[in-house]
Amino acid sequence: MMRPFSLKTRLWHTLSGLKWLLALALAFCAPMSVSARDIKVTVDASYAEYLLDIVCTGNEVDEKFLRAYAPLQSQIEHHTSMSDKRNFNTFVTSLQAASKCEVPEKDVFRFEPIIEDKDKFETVVAFFKEQGPAIEAFVGETLAPYLPEDLEYEGDLILSVIGNPCGGFAVSGRFYLALNCLTGSYQEDFETAKLISTHEIFHDMQHNFFFEKGMDFKDVTTPDEGYRFLFQQLLMEGTAEYVADSRQITGSGFLSNLLKGFSDNGNSQMAQHIRTFGYAADIIGDYDDWHTRLHDMFMMGFTGAGRQIFYYAGAGMARHMEATLGRASLVCVMHLPAEQFVLAYQSAALSSPNEVAGPLSPAMIDIAKRMSDERTADLRYESCLE
Q1: What is the model's pTM?
Q2: How far apart are CA 343 and CA 215, in angstroms?
Q3: Secondary structure of the chain in the HEC alphabet?
């Protein structure tokens, strides 16, 4: 979820989860292959155009159509993964108000900016719809080194004008680029938007080809599930940040500056952030309020509210693993159960420590080892070592 965005707030909870943040395509709704792998992604502006055709037009809201409309339902699925506040019924009520050019009473889907200046949104949607080839080339070149050779993938990039204002997220074979905060600087932020898109596309590939799909926080009911949730978030967000390296941000718009601030902090304090992830096991422990403690660690580390510091911890861990173990081993570990990422890093940190990549706390490693003991040999990181 570049959950700084998400991906998961990912910016605010999306940037769930800043859980950091267009896609491959040639043209609107036209699939295209990139690199040697069979990757097909469709840039889809139809959802954004549908909403723009309703806002302030008085056009009828077809609830039956929307109930079966996959791009909307996937977005609702994402937004309700942490809270039920942005549910389908609230969306319908909000769109009905926006159709009359009225700001919804509880504008949780953020229709107000569209009502205030719909022309800006129409311009930015048209721009990104036209930029499919440039986005496609960038994403393909960036992701190819970290994808399996036999990868077959197909997904949709959805241009999003409601919900989270910045960043992006991936869910159910679709990835969403939030256009709200790009309306004033879409050209200055274009390079950053490509990077966010790469991050989110990689997330969707993770959901399809990693060992296990990431859990939702609301589904965590035991401390062990809580640690598994943290390991999955670290693996998914850390490797997405590593592959779509936010240190390469060159834009000068609002989104670029925001993410550069996150990235500068995350990378300059990386050693501390890696240590802090290890401390999470000591903080959560087996206390009666472990669920609240887990929530606080998640909010601090994987959302924009905490500057998504564990994105950079995970990226630093992946970087050290590639430098120490080799890229092939890193890619192999990425496709194992998430605790193996933690254990592989610990092995690399112990065998080749440096001032940034130090070992994790014993309590965190004990938990990862206990999970690993339940795995067969082919699902342990040692099977990936060259």
Answers
A1: 0.80
A2: 20
A3: CCCCCCCCCECCCECCCCCCCCCCCCEECECCEECCCEEEEEEECHHHHHHHHHCCCCCCCCHHHHHCCHHHHHHHHHHCCCCCCCCHHHHHHHHHHHHCCCCCCCCCCCCHHHHHCHHHHHHHHHHHHHCHHHHHHHHHHHHHHHCCCCCEEEEEEEEECCCCCCCEEEECCEEEEECHHHCCCCCCCHHHHHHHHHHHHHHHHHHHHCCCCCCCHHHCCCHHHHHHHHHHHHHHHHHHHHHCCHHHCCCCCHHHHHHHHHHHHHHHCHHHHHHHHHHHHHHHCCCCCHHHHHHHHHHHHHCHHHCCHHHHHHHHHHHHHHHHHCHHHHHHHHCCCHHHHHHHHHHHHHHCCCCCCCCCCHHHHHHHHHHHCCCCHHHCHHHHCC
Determine the angle formed by the axes of helices 309-325 and 223-243, rounding to 10 degrees. Answer: 70
* Residue among 125, 128, 96, 98 at smallest CA distance from 110: 98
What residue ranges of the chain have pLDDT lower than 70? 1-37, 386
321-380 pLDDT, tens per residue? 999 999 999 999 999 999 999 999 999 999 998 999 999 999 999 999 999 999 999 999
Q: Provide the token pair at 329.
A: 């081993």
